[in-house]
Amino acid sequence: MNNKVMIPCWEHFEHEADIGIRGIASSPEQAFELIAVAMTAVITNPDHISASESVDISSEAPNLELLLLDWINNLNGVVP
Question: What angle is formed at CA 72 by the lines to CA 31 and CA 15, rounded to 5 degrees?
């Protein structure tokens, strides 16, 4: 039995387009949230900012991969 505990995290990685972002979590919702942090970390240290308002973002897609792509596109202009 594998009793490893997943520690949610985000990371950057090399990607031919520019920079890759990844959210690692036990749920898609948490992974998407961590990807937003990873996007923020491309331009600033996330430890130096705090949430000042809540923003609703709506996305729809037939699968998780396309949902993530749509969600990231919707984050543009919302994430500092």
Answer: 85
